Amino acid sequence: MWNDFTQQFWASTVDGLTNGSIYALIALGYTLVYGVLRLINFAHSEIFMLGTFAALGALNLFGISSPQTGLALVGTLLLMLVVAMVASGGSAVLLERIAYRPLRKRGASRLAALISAIGASFFLQELLAIWLGRDQIRIPRVMNKDTLFNIGSGQVRNDKVLVVVAAVVMMLLLERFVSTSRLGRGIRATAQDPDTAVLMGVNIDRVVMVTFLLGGILAGVAAALYGLFFELTQYNVGFLLGIKAFTAAVLGGIGNIRGALIGGLVLGLIESYGASIFGTQWLDVVAFSVLVLVLMFRPTGILGEQLQRARA
Amino acid sequence: MSALTGMRSRVRFPDFIGILGAWWDRRRWYGRWTVYLLTIIGAFLLPAPAIGSFMTPEADWPSVLFYPIGIYVLLAIGLNVVVGQAGLLDLGYVAFFAIGAYTLAVFTTKHGWNFWAVLPAGIIICAAAGLILGTPTLRLRGDYLAIVTLGFGEIIRITANNLDYTGGPRGISPIPHPPSDRSFEIFGVTPLRYGVIDAKPYYYLLLVIIIVVIIIVKRLEKSRVGRSWSAIREDEDAAELMGVPTFRFKIGAFIIGAAIGGSAGVVFASQTTSITPVNFPFILSALILCAVVLGGSGNLLGVILGAFLIAWLPERFRGFEEYRVLTFGAALVIMMIIRPEGLLPSRQRRAELAEGTGGMGALGGEAGPVADQRVEADDDLVSGHLPEVLAGRDDREGGA
Fold first, then answer.
1. A291: Cβ–Cβ under 8 A, 6 or more apart, which residues?
2. CA B151, CA B100: separation in Å to the nearest integer?
3. Taking Cα atoms as reference points, which of A99, A102, A117 lies closest to residue B3?
4. How much is the average pLDDT of A163-175?
5. Dihedral over Cα of B348, B350, B354, B357: its sign
6. Among partner residues B83, B329, B358, which is closest to A122 by beta-carbon distance?
7. Which chain A residue has its CA at the smallest distance from B9's CA?
């Protein structure tokens, strides 16, 4: 048990960081929407799922089914990213229009919005299941996975590096956007106090739309990277991943952009270490137990709530 | 969608629920008791084949009436205490259902206990589980509670899946039926003959439990406890300031909800005779929550109706197996858009919704008519500069 842990320590670290980066990218979407609307966007996992299918569709459309090199590889990766981002971002905006905005206008409770989100989640999952079947679908390998170097037992592969770097870069870009741009200021203002924000001339509808768009785009990036790394997808691929990502967001302090990244990485690492100590079948139990423990001692997550700190 | 909501304000449907409510308010105690008795008699006559041939032509009606309908109703009543009355969002309610079911399975198969002995034991164990889960987590607020309960539900399911003691993924079977009494017969049915063939005795057993639970829950709702719960639901800080020991009452709601969920689990396991972790997925928690909100969170009658619909509709439309969940998902969204307060909202909830804040706090952004009247100010988000109040916070926020 303990020997496994020490032997696999570096391997677990590398895997944990990779998984954690994907959690973090999805968690950013939860955190943004939660920060602005105080809504658990339950259908966010399906936004991610749509992204993986879009990336797969783009590869099929261009007939790419073998590993690429050089410029062709860069082009392929960009294609997957862009298509997944457009699909996820677009569907997130559409989702907000159809499933949340009417409720917001009627002043419905957050519970009603949550049920609407669950309904939308069922709908999207089943739509894909009926359309493309319920089996796992393979995504072709588009890049050769070479080991760059080893740290102890951990193999640092090029695709893993790509995933981690992409997550960090996206987080930095998002943070830059939210802290410096006009729209970002609108997002922060709405998160702090929507009523005052309206009085100050913030167009809340647009802020909410942009929030969903950003979350969707990040989910799209996560989807393309997921496709690259795991090379498969399924109609319910988002379910457990979504729960984990939300856990990561809460762990880091929901509404907090850096918190989502840290929460994702911490969750990924803990899971991976936990799995090497207790065996893989206990992976999810370890993840959720840690969540409960962290919240007991730091009820607002590791970094605390920030986007909406002004709201009780 | 704005066209849809706009139309609603022009075309006014007669307020049947309001009329019915007013009629109900005028009844004296004997009038009300007549209605109660008729309802109970009606519930006992429900398994009749004539009703079944219409309700579920493709399945055994008494079985469907027991599970999913009866079990969903009992679970929804239990969850309504937690969500509808105390306003605590629990996304892992299925955990208590699972604990109840596994308690029965373990105690009857491994320790040779009798069903009637396990029933109270299961309820007590679930209440204890509620206490253990609630003590650390109920200090958290709203959505943190939701994710922690969700995690707890998953922990219970995965643990049952991994432990050899609970049979791992294959679960536990066969679980013995409750002791039967074949000789007791009334109107041609044997309500105490618990076996594989006939689901009716289980339905009657469940019905008795549901009636007892409804009486308890209803009495609680009208008591000091119930008033404390609604105070906590509406504004926890205000309730605390008014001297309501909020933590104790929240734990209480959690424990009562857990105990009700546990009783459902015990009865469920004794009828199905075989349980596996697959019986207790997260989706079940979500479905029960949907039943509560769809029916009208906080109103017992609405919650029962919601649970009935959620359980019955998929059974009725088995021919459309393929599109069942798809339609269900779309229906949930549409229902929430058209009637966010649920089918039969409690009158208090309706009043709150009319005021613009629905129970557990409205969504961010403006509520009500303000949204439509707002002037489309300008192309930029913020006209001019942010006031110093907001601008000043930028420094402290550290860029997030």
1. A247, A250, A251, A267, B147, B148, B151
2. 18
3. A102
4. 93
5. positive
6. B329
7. A106
pTM beyond cutoff 0.95: no
- Nearest CA to A124 out of A196, A219, A200 is that of A219
**What distance in Å separates the CA atoms of residue A129 and residue A272, rounded to the nearest whole number?**
30
**How many CB pairs lie under 8 A apart between chains A and B?**
256
In angstroms, rounded to a whole number, what is the distance separating the alpha carbons of residues A241 and A255? 19
* Contact flag A306-B397 (C-beta cutoff 8 Å): yes
Pick B360's closest partner by Cβ from A110, A190, A288: A110
Q: Determine the pLDDT at residue B13.
A: 61
Q: By CA distance, what is A299's nearest residue in B?
A: B140
| ipTM for this prediction | 0.86
* H/E run at residue B125: helix B115-137
Q: Tokens 């032997």 label which residue?
A: A7
Q: CB distance A112–B158 less than 8 Å?
A: no
CB within 8 Å: B332 and A115: yes
Consecutive sets of 10 residues in chain B, 400 residues long: mean pLDDT of each? 46 70 84 89 86 82 90 96 91 94 94 92 95 84 79 90 91 87 72 78 93 95 92 88 93 96 95 92 90 88 92 81 82 87 75 51 41 35 36 36
How far is A23 from chain B, CA to nearest CA, in Å? Answer: 15
CA distance B243 to B259: 27
Residue whose C-alpha is closest to residue B233's, from B78, B75, B83:
B83
DSSP string covering A179-200? HHSHHHHHHHHHHH-HHHHHHT
Residue type, B231: A
β-strand partners of A143: A68
Give tens-digit pLDDT for B282-321: 889 989 999 998 888 888 999 999 999 989 888 887 777 7
What phi-psi label fits residue B200: left (phi over 0), alpha (psi between -120 and 50 degrees) or beta?
Answer: alpha
